[in-house]
Amino acid sequence: MAEEVLSQNEIDALLSALSTGEMDADDLKKEEKEQKVKVYDFKRALRFSKDQIRSLSRIHENFARLLTTFFSAQLRTYVQISVASVDQIPYEEFIRSIPKMTILNIFSVAPLDGRILLEANPNIAYAMLDRVLGGRGVSVNKVENLTEIETKIMSQMFEKTIDNLQEAWSSVVDIDPELDEFEVNPQFLQMVSPNETVVVISLNTEIGDSSGMINICIPHVVLEPIIPKLSVHYWMQTETKEREPGEYEALTKNIQKAEVEMKTILGESSMTIEQFLQLAPDDVIQLNQDIDDPLVLKVDDESKFLVQPGESKKKVAVQVLEEYKGGDDDDE
């Protein structure tokens, strides 16, 4: 058991409190002997660390941005989607928290086991449906009486979000999502056992004048194989992993093929507008460059070498004298 080390100031304050009677030594001993008990609810087992929950939140923040762009283009109206919360709760509690009749999309996410659930509040779903059918995005909740055409349109609309889900998860694992079922009654849906821990990502959704929630339910069985990849340590190891021996050679060859612009400024001069307008043929403009001083060779506007002008094979050329080591644009 680790011992807590007190600073000198804390020791002095403790002794002062004991001497003045603010604290009683017997009470301190009694508190030390008492067993500290923390309440634990076995029905609500926390199987994900805060670090892993934060990783899931980051993934679905990206997913929310992708959905915002996607639905804005599909519905051609104002759409704003953002992550409201990320919680781990029993599956039974999640089912009780959503409406008795709602829009449920069940996706398989091969190669991961199990399935995930995307639940859209009827207000949001019907606003989407109304926009697709040419309306203003008015929400009318009649989820209990969906026609076959409305069911088909809604299921196809959410099926098109698969690419966004795949892209959002690509930083962790390559998945191949597929819409397996479309349901409206949560009681007919039994993805996992009631006490199974699930992660619920709630998305605040605004479509035109309508607002509601989109909930994504991910069972523990789906995330179990990739739990190590949801930690900060994994991200750090991924970023700092060593390259393969052949990667440096391939990278060097590719860089060597890159084209850069090289130029040498022979000199510069300044004059007034009046002098410029009076220029005539055979006039001589004096440059600020001494004929005996070397010129500066620039590579993509960065000064790199000192050179002297000359001629090579009847073409104007420069000869490199040394590396450029002065000036404000020096890289070294």
UniProtKB/TrEMBL annotation:
The keyword Membrane applies. One of its GO terms (molecular function) is cytoskeletal motor activity. GO terms for biological process: bacterial-type flagellum-dependent swarming motility; positive chemotaxis. The gene is fliM. Belongs to the FliM family. It is found in: Bacterial flagellum basal body; Cell membrane. SUPFAM superfamilies: CheC-like (SSF103039), Surface presentation of antigens (SPOA) (SSF101801). GO terms for cellular component: bacterial-type flagellum basal body; plasma membrane. Pfam families: FliM, FliMN_C. This is Flagellar motor switch protein FliM. The lineage of its organism: Bacteria, Bacillati, Bacillota, Bacilli, Bacillales. Residues 254-322 form the Flagellar motor switch protein FliN-like C-terminal domain. The keyword Membrane applies. InterPro entries: CheC-like_sf, Flag_FliM, FliN-like_C, SpoA-like_sf. NCBIfam families: fliM_switch. Keywords: Bacterial flagellum, Cell membrane, Cell projection, Chemotaxis, Cilium, Flagellar rotation, Flagellum, Membrane. It is a peripheral membrane protein. It comes from Pontibacillus yanchengensis.
